[in-house]
Amino acid sequence: MDFSNNKEKDKQLFSFEVFPPKKDSNIETIYKTLEELKDLNPDFISVTYGAGGREAGNSKTCEIASIIKDKYNIIPVAHLTCVNSSKAEVDAELTNLKKHGIKNILALRGDIVPDIERKNDFAHASDLINYINEHSQGYFEIFGACYPEVHVDAPDIITDISNLKKKVEAGAGHLISQLFFDNGKFYDFCEKARIAGINVPIEAGIMPVTNKKQIERMVTMCGASLPSKFVKVLQRYEYAPEALRDAGIAYAIDQIVDLLSNGVDGIHLYTMNNPYVAKKINDAVRNLFL
Ligand code: FAD
User: Fold this and answer.
1) Which residues partner with 80 through β-bridges?
2) Rounded CA gap, 81 and 241, in Å?
3) Quick one: pLDDT at residue 274?
4) Residue 6 has what pLDDT?
5) Residue 17 annotated to the active site
6) Mean pLDDT score, 270-283
7) How far is ligand 1, taken at its centre, from the CA of residue 81, in Å?
């Protein structure tokens, strides 16, 4: 990631994540979101990639990342998954990204979904990272994902961190964490990762909870633990949507203040394509990034 134009390298980062609109919704909706997010001046915006790999070579991810770069002059990070893709499909997407001048990739395995055909070319994100490096002569900067509360497929944190180290050794120069609601879990994870010799920046993934359905889905998917303070918020405001949204924003701000004052490398905000929420959080914490 090239910060030469807009950031000193050792500053705490503030980045956002967006996702392409669902197939049947209008692509224009994401332009409106980006239009508002750009005013918040993030260090980069990452764009998720669909689970199937079916759009490889012509993905919405690449299209949106190009707009982030060309229209808003913000560094884009394009997510790329591999478990459902063949080498030919990955090649097509890498060529597409290169053609559009996208240099940063968050290289992921992707979830193993029963109704999507699994291809056998890549088993882990580290295989994808090795492949990108072998085939792109250093053109791409590679990011990886990490899991403060252990990835669901891993038997324990020690195994998961040792697998994470393989990913970093393969060339992931920057890690972004899964969402979490208990900062203590993140600090424990970072300590163990550092002891294991993982020395690349680790950004903390924060998802502001703005509705109850969202939290239920996320927790089932990623197994994040819910501190009692957080559960009380959910219980108290579950039938008051505006109150829940505001309490979710306040909870995220509280988490971020604690993380920044503990010197984390950066905050990666899962914006859920909601610029209102991103703006509220940005306004509250922007001056705390040192
Ligand atoms: P890996 O790093 O391959 O790890 C997966 C499992 O395999 C872990 O249990 C790990 O311990 C184990 N493992 C890893 N390497 C090895 C090895 N060499 N040998 C043995 N075991 C190993 N999904 C999408 O579909 N699209 C997205 O855009 C997307 N964006 C994401 C962004 C972030 C920040 C995060 C945290 C997740 C994202 N995901 C996305 C979800 C992600 O695809 C899933 O969590 C997936 O299950 C794991 O992906 P990974 O890249 O972390 O896998």
Assistant:
1) 107
2) 34
3) 95
4) 43
5) yes
6) 97
7) 9
Give the C-alpha distances (Å, rounded to integers) separating 240 from 96, 146, 227, 233, 276: 45, 33, 21, 11, 18
Record the tokens describing residue 259, joined without a space: 């993380």
pLDDT computed for residue 157 by the predictor: 97
Q: Which residue's CA is the closest to the ligand 1 atom numbered 15? A: 163
Taking the domain 13-288, which CATH number applies?
3.20.20.220
- The pLDDT tens digits of the residues spanning 230-258 come to 999 989 999 999 999 999 999 999 999 99
pTM above 0.90, yes or no: yes
Residue nearest to atom 51 of ligand 1 (CA): 108
Domain residue ranges in the chain: 13-288
Average pLDDT, the chain: 92
Does any ligand 1 atom lie closer than 6 A to the CB of residue 47? no
